Amino acid sequence: MTGITARQLQWWDERAIVVPAREGHRRVYSLNDLTEVAVICELRRRGFPLQRVRKVIRFLQREFGKSLAETVSGVSDYHLLTDGNTIYLEASAKQMLDVLKNTRQPILAICLNDTVRQLRADIRQFKKRNGLFITGRSSRAAS
Fold first, then answer.
1. Within 13 Å, how many C-alpha atoms sit on residue 57's CB side?
2. Which of 52, 32, 35, 33 is closest to 43 using CA atoms?
3. Domains defined for the chain, CATH in brackets
4. 74 pLDDT above the threshold of 70
5. Quick check: 72 and 112 in contact, CB under 8 A?
6. What gap in Å lies between CA 60 and CA 35, rounded to an integer?
């Protein structure tokens, strides 16, 4: 769903970047885990080295105080802005413009909500293709 290999997910788990739950030897990724993976993949696609990605993920976890998926599911669109050194998290266009006006370096902006929306659409499509449906909070195979 995220376009990365199982080996890469294993490597991220070994380095405590995204740590999924375990069922025996299997890694089980929750929606929150997949959200973090999707954000990391977007940052990597934009050329961020993994060290910077870790910094961004830690920042997001500190700022939100709850899971990234819960936060960006709300009404406001959250935008992550960075010049490579400083990280800004903005929910309003006015705040974003203030950051952009006061910077002397190029800024990279990523809409976190768009990343999560795309992930959720991919999950719905995957479940539909594989005969799964959602009831309440759990997924079951269609009979």
1. 25
2. 52
3. 6-135 (1.10.1660)
4. no
5. yes
6. 12
